[in-house]
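How a chain folds remains the central question behind the approach discussed here. For one protein, we set the task of working out the structure tokens from the amino acid sequence alone. The sequence in question and its structure tokens are set out directly beneath this paragraph.

_____
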Amino acid sequence: MTSTEPRTSAKASASQAPAVRLRGVHKHFGDVHAVRGLDLEIRPGEIVAFLGPNGAGKTTTVDMVLGLSRPTAGEVSVFGTDPRTAIAKGLVSAVMQTGGLLKELTVAETVRLTASLFADTRPVDEVLTRAGIADLGNRLVGKCSGGQQQRLRFAMALLSDPELLILDEPTTGMDVEGRRDFWSAIRADADSGRTVVFATHYLEEADAYADRIVLVRKGKIVADGTAAEVKALAAGRTVRAHFPGADREQLFAIPGADSIEVRATAS
């Protein structure tokens, strides 16, 4: 990570609206309170990691930014408009963990098929090159590795030349080389000024590729800053203390407490 200053693209500079804005966002699934009052603003050109363990609310938040679900309360906007409107305008693309690929097609056929769904796209050869898979055009998708398939999804996402690229746990299950190649392609593209938001549970991934890390725990933002700032806050510490008569639930409510071990003392 070399800079915290957002890059600027031609289209993004024409609008002063934040790339993503969340205000007081809550999301319930029955009795489950998955997202708890998120307030977040992402500027055009930033590369932001949404970091947290499984169940932290990352994917739920990504789904709301993509317009796949709506918040129970609060407001989500993308470039100053409703997420679904932004997607309809071609301002947003996503790279998800799995799905969306036909294994009997070649890589190039897959991209051409996707391009046929749009009125206006970048050239197929261009997006294959930008995704680092120009040499795989004639390979069957079913013969591609997990990392190569993710770079294919990246190429498909680039077809509309979006202002905002969202990635949900994009390297889960990849080997080290696959993760490195995937992020090399993403970072090279982002240097042109595209806004990138990615959800991950890998701290080293967020540290290496994001300008800014938003740390999420139990549906809340608990830290927001550079990698160094967030790592300092996230460093685990064990604290031993004696609280005569303390209630276990009260101890769990202490900010930053992930686990509580209660031991009886000899009388």
Summary: The longest helix spans residues 176-190. The chain has one domain: 10-237. Residues 10-237 form a domain with the Rossmann fold fold (CATH 3.40.50.300). The radius of gyration is 21 Å.
